[in-house]
Design brief:
It comes from Lacticaseibacillus nasuensis JCM 17158. The chain is α+β, with helices and mostly antiparallel strands. The chain contains 27 helices and 27 strands. About 45% of the residues lie in helices and about 20% in strands. Strands 15, 16, 17, 19, 20, 21, 24 and 25 form an eight-stranded mixed sheet that branches.
């Protein structure tokens, strides 16, 4: 069955040589009870370990059923221990954090026996050793004799052909010893049992054969055996521990050390908590900054007017610090006037603007000075109206509307249209108080302030009869319809050649070219911090003016004014600039009066300005287009500073993360030391190196994952007090916001880092010599 041929095993420690096995040759029968007697240190355990595949021989050969083990690989030894050998130790070596059943099942767990069968066989084994009534206890609830019975049940559960016992009664009283001996003798009827004992009486009483051992050599053999030459067929089933078993084993172990596990998880989570809080804060601050910026930018667009101020020119005016001694006075244009620059907002320029990257400035509002011929039916009768906010009662004399329109267009505010065609500007900055957002070019809105107050003149100019502080129901305003009449329907030429607005507004309003404008909603700024981006009153789309322009471009009155030097409405003479204004007002000029560009962040604005500067590069002074950067004085410091602070904080938190990783490594290492015995037992039961690594990796996985989740939960809980403090101090609400994606990433990072930290000690554990591991106390 089993044969040792000239087995040698020498230990060399500090120059001295210990011959633990000094040329041992012996053979064992398929079925017998062999007792090995000998003084301490004579090499009995070493021999047993070599026979059981827990230790390697230096030279010689171990034959199993006639087959040499010289070419055995690790996995063959693992399988041999698992399938063919059962070990019983003096100190029982039960795994204390597993139940009795689980201890007995472990060998089968490693070889992948199905659950039901495993359970059945474990139960049978426990019944066989007489523990039927104690099956559901914990190892710690058993007496020494009972624990040894469990160990025996574990050894025979896989029904091995060889049972190896190393002083199994060494720790038991004589009465219990006899019971155990009886049991082992009983088991030896079915298999080969080799038992080391220091008790010659027990050996002689129970064993079939006694081998006396001393100084690594067999001194006497009571019943020697000569092994036949035939080789029996035998096959080894390789073992493999599943990840699930590894996890369960580690989880059980962790469960028995709740306090320490909690401390470990807590300590390791500090790094995660730090990083999570920092990220949450910077997240929120960034959002806050973006929002503030976007609001600031919305009320301070980059503006190009027909007349711009060249601030560079203004700066260059050198001022002397001394008084003049001259006896004369010199006339000069003021610096401010010198800086006046007439912008030619050409189609070229507009095309250039439209090519500006959309992400830098989502919205551009182009205003034209064109007027609109508006009429509204009040009490069944049409009357002219406008969008202006100047007091209509104080405007008198000549065509007041023409005068007003010539300087400010039709009045009201133009809101920009999203360059991708959507209505994002209003939706971003304004909320609807009544009605809905405009959807069409002909939809107009009323802008009210935070107190729902609207400029009284805006309503008066729309034809409402209003008294100061009068309130209106929403539905009195929403749905108001206006007629937008084309020049050709609105102006009639008199025989004298001058033009006059039609007397029959009703007829003009019914003309096919007339458009109907509808007040679709009342809107108000969303943010408490931004005052009106649009003035109180009427607001309409930039596209509406553009459409008016297209309609009136070729109207009779425009054509007439283009030819006439005098005002075609009044017949009066006028200078060139007034004439241009009148022409613009009539819709005869498609040169915009202002262009407003709305970047949403300072960074975007910088890009926009760069883009605008590029247009001017290399151009003659007169062809340059000068913009006004209203937000120019507000700097972008905050953003950069935030980034810097975030990096520093993340770096600090990262250091604590690394620290906690090192801690996990130390904890795993102590756990490895602590569980040395368990590692030995698992190996004796056939666990591979990989399986041992797996057990410890599983443990660090649980710890790392636990630390990650715990850290995230704590960080999330911390955001509440942090936010309430920040809200008290700065007035900003909901600054710390934990991004779920960050949370997931941090849990993964924590898990990976701790596995990495624990992997080295886990590998050390796996490499532990089983024989040495089992000798450890
Ligand atoms: P026994 O079981 O008969 O008491 P052992 O087989 O345990 O004896 O040990 C035999 C000898 O080998 C002893 O002298 C022991 O000190 C030595 N020995 C055992 N294991 C080692 C080891 N890992 N390193 C060095 N010496 C060892
Ligand atoms: Mg020993």
């Amino acid at each position: 069955m089993l044969e040792l041929k000239h087995i040698k095993k020498y230990y060399h420690v500090g120059g001295t040589e210990t011959r633990a096995q000094d040329d041992v040759s012996v053979a064992f029968r398929k079925q017998e009870f062999v007792a090995i007697l000998g003084p301490s240190g004579s090499g009995k355990t070493t021999m047993l370990n070599i026979i059981g595949g827990l230790d390697r021989y230096d030279s010689g050969d171990l034959l199993i059923k006639g087959r040499s083990t010289k070419d055995f690989k690790d996995k063959d030894w693992d399988a041999y221990r698992n399938n063919s050998v059962g070990f019983i130790f003096q100190s029982y070596n039960l795994i204390s954090h597993l139940s009795i059943m689980e201890n007995v099942e472990m060998g089968m767990t490693l070889s992948g026996v199905a659950t039901a069968e495993k359970k059945q066989r474990a139960e049978d084994a426990l019944i066989r050793v007489g523990l039927k009534d104690h099956m559901h206890k914990k190892p710690s609830q058993l007496s020494g004799g009972q624990m040894q019975r469990v160990a025996i049940a574990r050894a025979i559960a896989n029904d091995p052909e060889i049972l190896l016992a190393d002083e199994p009664t060494g720790a038991l009283d004589s009465e219990t010893s006899k019971e155990i001996m009886q049991l082992i003798q009983d088991l030896s009827r079915e298999r080969l049992v080799i038992m080391v004992t220091h008790n010659p009486d027990l050996a002689h009483q129970y064993a079939d054969r006694i081998i006396e051992f001393a100084d690594g050599q067999i001194q006497h053999d009571s019943h020697p055996h000569v092994e036949g030459q035939k080789t029996e067929a035998f096959q080894l089933n390789h073992t493999k521990m599943s990840y699930w078993t590894a996890l369960k084993l580690s989880f059980n172990n962790i469960r028995t050390k709740k306090g320490r596990t909690f401390l470990t998880v807590f300590a390791s989570s500090i790094g995660i908590i730090g990083i999570a809080v920092v990220l949450a804060l910077s997240n929120g601050f960034q959002k806050q900054i973006d929002k503030t910026q976007s609001e600031a930018m919305a009320s301070m667009p980059v503006t190009v007017s027909q007349v711009g101020t060249d601030t560079n020119a203004m700066m260059t005016g050198t001022k002397t610090k001394t008084f003049s001694k001259a006896s004369h006075v010199t006339a000069q244009t003021s610096d401010a006037d010198k800086a006046q620059h007439v912008n030619h907002i050409t189609q070229d320029y507009l095309d250039y603007l439209s090519k500006m990257p959309k992400k830098d400035a989502k919205n551009i509002a182009i205003s034209y000075g064109t007027g609109m011929n508006l009429a509204r039916q009040v009490n069944g009768k049409y009357r002219t109206v406008n969008f202006s906010t100047t007091n209509p009662d104080s405007a008198s004399g000549v065509d007041a509307r023409a005068m007003m329109a010539a300087s400010t267009g039709v009045g009201g505010s133009v809101y920009p249209i999203d360059r991708s065609g959507k209505q994002s500007f209003l939706k971003t900055y304004y909320k609807v108080v009544a009605g809905h957002y405009p959807t069409q070019t002909t939809d107009i809105v009323l802008v009210v302030d935070k107190d729902n107050v609207i400029n009284i003149n805006a309503l008066k100019n729309l034809g409402f009869t209003v008294k100061e502080n009068q309130s209106f129901n929403f539905n009195q305003l929403v749905g108001t319809k206006l007629k937008l009449i084309a020049n050709d329907d609105y102006y009639q030429q008199l025989p004298t050649g001058t033009f006059l607005p039609t007397q029959d507004l009703a007829a003009a309003a019914a003309k096919p070219a007339t458009k109907t404008l509808t007040v679709t909603g009342i809107i108000r700024v969303k943010s408490k911090n931004s005052d009106g981006l649009l003035a109180s009153g009427v607001a309409y789309s930039a596209a509406l003016t553009k459409s008016v322009l297209t309609t009136n471009d070729h109207s009779a009155i425009v054509k007439a004014q283009q030819q006439a030097k005098t005002n075609v409405l009044t017949g009066q003479a006028m200078d060139a600039s007034t004439r241009a204004s009148v022409l613009t007002m009539l819709g005869g000029s498609d040169t915009p009066t202002t262009v407003q560009i709305y970047p949403t962040t300072f960074k975007d604005k910088d890009r926009v300005l760069k883009y605008l500067d590029k247009y001017n590069a290399g151009k003659a002074k007169a062809d340059k287009v000068i913009y006004t950067d209203l937000a120019g004085t507000v700097s972008d410091m905050t953003g950069g500073l935030m980034d810097a602070i975030t990096y520093v904080l993340v770096a600090f938190a990262g250091i604590s993360l690394v620290t906690s990783m090192i801690m996990i490594a130390i904890i795993t290492y102590t756990s490895v030391l602590e569980r040395t015995k368990e590692i030995g037992v698992l190996k004796a039961l056939g666990a591979r190196k990989k399986d041992i690594t797996r057990v410890f990796d599983a443990e660090t996985f649980i710890l790392g994952f636990g630390a990650g989740v715990f850290g995230i939960v704590v960080a999330w809980l911390l955001t509440f007090p942090i936010n309430s403090v920040l809200s008290n101090v700065t007035g900003l609400n909901g600054v710390a916001v934990l991004n779920p994606l960050h949370a997931v990433i941090l849990v993964i990072v924590s898990t990976i880092l701790t596995i990495l930290g624990g992997h080295v000690p886990a590998r050390m554990a796996a490499r532990k010599d089983a024989a040495i591991a089992l000798r450890a106390e």
